[in-house]
Every structure is written in structure tokens, then in C-alpha cells.
Amino acid sequence: MRKLIIVEGLPCSGKSTVSKHIADVLGMEFTDEGSGDHPADYEFHAFLSEKELAEFQPDEQELILAAAEKHCGGYIVPIGSFCGDLFDRLLTHKIYDFLPWETEKPLMLDKWRSFAESAVNSSGYVFNCVFLQNPMCETMMRFGFDNSVSEGYIREIYDIIRPLEPFVVYLKTDSIAAEIKKALPERGEEWLSGVIDYHCGGEYGNSLGLSGFEGYVSALEERQRRESAILRHLGIDSIIIENYKTDSKNAYDKILAALSAK
User: Fold this and answer.
1) pLDDT per residue as tens digits for the range 196-227
2) Would 150 disulfide with which of 12, 115, 138, 139, CB 3.0-4.6 Å?
3) Angle 212-234/176-187 helices, nearest 10 degrees?
4) Pick from 167, 166, 153, 45: which is nearest to 115 by CA?
């Protein structure tokens, strides 16, 4: 029985709307990105090694240990549980933003393993991204790795979740810039500035001299091309929906038909 459906695609492609609809129709648990307590992801957590923990004051260590979970030879700490100076210092150890790849990768794979083990006996989950988007943002945008590294990492995740019979719905768009502009009144200029800085200021963007809105869109175009290719290479059960927003009813019919056929 299928236990995991993941809706992927670029920002503003309709992932959250589609994943919520699928979950409602199929009676599965919907998990949005940024939910704060994702079962397969660390959204706002720090990682401290034993050595890094020892750099905090004894009273601070006590507070950290009370909130932390021990994993991979260190401690996963929910940053949102703290405030003030301690919050700021934990933020410098945030997973995704500051950890070296050789530290981050085993942490994330361990998180996927824990999720896969717990999800076997669940009613099933529908995720808004995290399977392609998060790995690509890290391996491609932040670290500037070759696409073979991205694909290899995503394949490792797929091997972990394979017992859940995962299915990927990929929302592909031909109008990336237009969709982002349409969403801007709701998401705001601060959001746009942040994503531009991330995509243009990482190793990938720096290597190509990307800047501004045009640079951000260029990075997304390449990410979509790479993700589509990786999806085909993996052999995972999936469907690619072209321009979902132009005919959402037809898209939903195709998605649910594909899911029922597997």
C-alpha cells in the first residue's frame, strides 16, 4: 500500500494547493513545508557536535540538552525553543544554512530513515516537496555540486523510502517568472529578496555571476531541468503535470488516475 506521495516543483507552481487536495481526497496526512515539525526534515534546527556543545556555558548546555535529541554523534536542537543571545548563537549552527555537507548529509539521511520506519504503519503522508527541492537547493544552489552528486544523494533518499511505495507529482511550469510575479503580492518583497540572495549568492549563482530577479529565474530554470531529468533516471513512480494552473481540474483528474493505477 502506498504510504507516501510527494508533490514537487518550483516556487509558486502550486505544490501546497495540490498536495493538500490529494491528502483530502485520499484521507492521508498532509505535511506542508515550513510546518515547523516535519517528520522527514529539519526545518529550523541546529546541530551541535560534542565539542561545539562544550563551548557553551554549563547552564546553557543544560538548557540545550533538555531540548535536544542525540543523533550522529551530536545533538539536534530546535532553535525556536530559545530566545535572545542563545537563539542567535544556535542559529549559526543551523542545519541547511551553515553545516558542511559531510556533516549535513548523514543527518538528513538519518532523519529520512527514522521517518520511513515510523510511516510503515501509518495511514500515509502527502508532502509538499522536500524530496527533490531541499536536496537540490543544498547540493546545487548552496554548494554548487555537479548534478551527479545531487542525483546520487536523492537516490539514497529514494532507497530509504522505497518500502513506502512513494509517488512523485511534479508540477512543471513554462512561465516561471510570471508565476513568481503573480504570487508576489501575497509572499512579499522580503520573501523575494531572500530567495534571490539564496539562489544568486550560493556557489551555483556565484559561479555563473547570477544576480537579481533574472538570475533567480535562470537558476530555477536550470533546477527544473535537472529535477525533471533526475526524476526520469530514478525510476520512481511519478507523473509530470505541465502548467497545472492553466487547467487544474484536468490536472487533478490525471494525478488521481495515475495514483489509482499504481
Assistant:
1) 999 999 999 999 999 999 999 999 999 999 99
2) 139
3) 110
4) 166
**Residues ≥6 apart with Cβ < 8 Å to 138:** 96, 101, 104
CA-based torsion, 100, 106, 109, 115: positive or negative = negative
**Which residues have C-beta within 8 Å of that of residue 61, sequence separation ≥ 6?**
53, 54
Report the length, in residues, of the chain: 262
Q: Give the residues across from 242 on adjacent strands.
A: 172
Secondary structure of residue 15 in the 3-state scheme: helix
Query: Which residue do the cell numbers 494552473 mark?
Result: 245
pLDDT tops 70 at residue 262: no
Residue 157 near residue 131 (C-beta atoms within 8 A): yes
What pLDDT, in 10s, does the model give residues 10-57? 999 999 999 999 999 999 999 998 777 899 999 899 999 999 999 999
| Distance of alpha carbon 193 from alpha carbon 196, whole angstroms | 5
Contacts 24+ apart (CB under 8 A), 30-38: 30/125, 30/126, 30/128, 31/125, 31/126, 31/127, 31/128, 32/128, 33/128, 33/129, 33/130, 33/133, 36/80, 38/130
